[in-house]
Amino acid sequence: MTRGEVYWAVLEPRSGSEQRGRRPVLVVSHDIFNRSPGWRSVIVVPLSTSSRQSARGPTAVLIPGRAGGLPHDSIALCHQVTTLDRGKMANRAGVLPGPLLQRVEAGLKMAMSLT
C-alpha cells in the first residue's frame, strides 16, 4: 500500500455526514507508515461521485473518471480525511497520477490550514 493508490474500502460504522458504505478512497499517509508491518492504520481521503460535493470549494477536488482506476468522475473530499484500519481496505483500483495527487495535497492543505 503506497501514497497515491486508490482502494475500495468499507467505511462503516460512520455517523452524521461522514461518507459511508463501500467506496473508493485515496491513500495519503506517508509511505514509511504504509510499509510498516506494525502500523495497522492508513490515512485516506474518501471519494464521492455526487456532483453536489464539487460545490464544497477548494477542499473538494475533481478526479476524472479512469484516473486511478476509477469508473466515474469522482470528488476527493479532503475535508473528510480519515484514518482506517487496513482490514477495511479491499481491492486496489489503481494509482493517481502525480499532478492529480498534488491537487489533492493542495486540498488537504486548505482543509487543515497548512502552508
| Count of the separate structural domains | 1
CATH architecture: Roll
Number of helices: 2
**What structural class do helix, strand and pairing data support?**
alpha+beta
* Topology order in helix (H) and strand (E) letters: EEHEEEEEH
What is the strand tally? Answer: 7
What share of the residues does DSSP label as strand, in percent? 35-45%
Radius of gyration: 13 Å
| Main beta sheet | 7 strands, antiparallel
First-to-last CA distance:
27 Å
Characterize the overall form.
globular
Q: Average the pLDDT over all residues and give the rounded result.
A: 89
CATH structural class: Mainly Beta
Structure at a glance:
The protein has 115 residues and is α+β, with helices and mostly antiparallel strands. The chain contains two helices and seven strands; from the N terminus they run ββαβββββα. Helix content is 17%, strand content 36%.
How would you summarize the topology of this molecule?
Blueprint: E1 5-11, E2 21-27, H1 31-34, E3 41-48, E4 60-63, E5 74-77, E6 82-85, E7 89-95, H2 98-112
Antiparallel strand pairs: 1-2, 1-7, 2-3, 3-5, 3-6, 4-5
